[in-house]
Specification:
Layout lengths: L9 H9 L4 H13 L3 H31 L11 H21 L8
Helix pairs in contact: 1-2, 3-4
């Protein structure tokens, strides 16, 4: 049987938000309540955002390679070579970290 969610009073919502241990968690609860998102919906949104960031990092990777190989043409002559080259492995690490964030979670019950 399908159960409808219970509706919280203003006092209950305030109590729930104020019970969050950190300001970040309080802000997250306020945003969730304001938008009407449930935790599961937020998790799906987080995964979609990670995939979007992966796509962005892959899309700009050729531009970073061009900046390393043609610094004068790319307008990056004033940037130290170590910083220009340092972007490439950093970008790879960011993609790997985002892939790790999108992995399916094991839920123990």
């Amino acid at each position: 049987m399908l159960r409808l969610p219970s509706i919280l009073s203003q006092e209950e919502v305030s109590s729930l938000i104020e019970s969050a241990p950190t300001p970040f968690q309080r802000t997250l609860l306020m945003a969730l309540y304001a938008t009407g998102l449930r935790r599961a919906e937020l998790a799906r949104l987080k995964r979609a955002a990670a995939w979007g960031l992966i796509a962005l990092l892959i899309a700009v990777f050729p531009a970073n390679i061009y900046m390393v190989t043609h610094p004068i043409d790319a307008g990056a002559a004033s940037i130290a070579p170590v910083l220009r080259w340092g972007r490439l492995p950093l970008q790879l690490l960011l993609v790997l970290w985002l892939l790790w964030c999108t992995r399916p979670r094991l839920i123990l019950r």
